[in-house]
């Protein structure tokens, strides 16, 4: 099972599902909507890539969502998000290539770490800044 490193209270309220009667039945059950999971993934790492958004063209379902990402190196990918994890399914936005046999990554961090040295640097620097801030907080 994948867990998002995102507090659900931080998610925007404009998901558009609230009034959709098809989704009301899922409240209180353990069914995860992958679009919400995908939005959480995007919100988590958007600061460290050039562009990232949930695909509006490819179909999202209870068990799959697609995320477009452009790295700081200007490489474009379409990622598939399932319970198995994330993997690259195409080298452009809103595409899937069935011939592509890429490995699943348990987290978006490990996937982006493998694709983008610039992501690794930006993410690492953000982590260092956060640690420095925590250190200062604990000293005051």
Annotation, overall tally of beta strands:
4
Low-confidence stretches: 1-31
The overall pLDDT average reads: 84
Task: Please identify which CATH superfamily we are dealing with.
Answer: Hypothetical protein (hspc210)
Can you write the helix and strand succession as a string? HHEEEEHH
- What is the CA-atom radius of gyration, in angstroms? 16 Å
SS field, number of helical segments: 4
The major pleated sheet works out as:
4 strands, antiparallel
CATH C-level: Alpha Beta
Shape: elongated
Structure description:
The protein is an alpha+beta fold and 140 residues long. The chain has a single domain (34-138), classed as Hypothetical protein (hspc210) (copper amine oxidase-like fold). 34% of the residues lie in helices and 16% in strands. The chain is built from four helices and four strands, in the order H-H-E-E-E-E-H-H. It has a four-stranded antiparallel sheet with strand order 1-2-3-4, with helices on one face. Strand 3 and strand 4 form a beta hairpin. The radius of gyration is 16 Å and the shape is elongated. One of its GO terms (cellular component) is cytoplasm. It comes from Vireo altiloquus. Residues 1-23 are annotated as: Disordered.
């Amino acid at each position: 099972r994948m867990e998002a490193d995102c507090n659900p209270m931080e998610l925007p309220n404009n998901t558009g599902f609230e009034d959709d009667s098809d989704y009301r039945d899922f409240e209180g059950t353990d069914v995860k909507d992958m679009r919400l999971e995908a939005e959480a993934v995007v919100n988590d790492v958007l600061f460290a890539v050039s562009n990232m958004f949930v695909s509006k063209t490819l179909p999202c379902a209870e068990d799959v969502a697609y995320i477009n990402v452009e790295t700081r190196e200007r490489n474009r990918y379409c990622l598939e998000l399932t319970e198995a994890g994330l993997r690259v399914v195409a080298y452009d936005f809103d595409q899937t290539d069935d011939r592509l046999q890429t490995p699943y990554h348990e987290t978006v961090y490990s996937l982006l770490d493998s694709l983008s040295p610039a992501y690794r640097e930006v993410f690492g620097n953000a982590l260092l800044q956060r640690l420095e801030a925590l250190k200062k907080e604990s000293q005051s």
